[in-house]
Amino acid sequence: MVKAEKIILGIDPGTNLMGYGVLRTVGQKAEAVALGVIDMHKIGDTYQKLGHIYERVSGIISEYLPDELAIEAPFFGKNVQSMLKLGRAQGVAIAAAIQHDVPIHEYAPLKIKMALTGNGAASKEQVAGMLQRILHLDEEQMKQHFDATDALAAAYCHFMQMNRPQSSAGYRSWKDYATKNSDKVRQ
């Protein structure tokens, strides 16, 4: 039996830098195909930035033909204006995927960090370091912005979710499992 190849595009939304990472998977194996950033620092108009995001994400989709998109959910911070801008950027990237019939999966930053490092409070450096070890990335690939490695981390998180057997019990965390299965867990 031949295992099907799947291409996963990861996106880390941003209004000045939007990271992207492309992961090729076959069965239980994954390899990084590309990672980079969409740089919008020189674009002053907010709406032109959104148009640029749409064009670039559409171009990346056309180039790599992903089977699925894994996108990081906006982080809920204190600055409402920043949240609105980030949500717009994420929405435009999602719209590009919808236009190309690419299924979308959204992951919270905490979930992505947990999937890669086991620590939801991991730093961007820790996430990048783990990706470098897992995917055997060379130093040249690691010279990208953390936005690029965060995007690749979203794609890898989705890969891990695809290969994880779904529990019919619906556990949300190890703590949830332990609570529901106290007879199976030693304290």
Structural notes for this entry:
It is a single chain. The protein is α/β, with parallel strands linked by helices. It has one domain (5-180): Nucleotidyltransferase, domain 5, CATH 3.30.420. It has helices at 46-64, 80-99, 109-117, 124-135, 139-142, 146-162, 174-180; strands at residues 5-12, 17-26, 29-39, 68-72, 104-107. A five-stranded mixed β-sheet has the order 3-2-1-4-5. The mean pLDDT is 87.
Beta-sheet strand percentage? 15-25%
Count of DSSP H/I helices:
7
* CATH class designation: Alpha Beta
Helix content: 40-55%
Q: Any guess at the CATH architecture? A: 2-Layer Sandwich
Overall number of structural domains: 1
- CATH homologous superfamily title: Ribonuclease H-like superfamily/Ribonuclease H
- What is the average of the pLDDT values? 87
**Major sheet:** 5 strands, mixed
Write the H/E string, N to C: EEEHEHEHHHHH
Within the CATH hierarchy, at the fold level, what is the topology? Answer: Nucleotidyltransferase, domain 5
Instruction: Give the termini distance in whole angstroms.
Output: 43 Å
Q: Assign an overall shape.
A: globular
Count of strand segments: 5
Strands ordered across the widest β-sheet: 3-2-1-4-5
List low-confidence stretches.
none
- Rg (C-alpha, Å): 17 Å
Overview features:
7 helices, 5-stranded mixed beta sheet, Nucleotidyltransferase, domain 5, 187 residues, alpha/beta, single chain
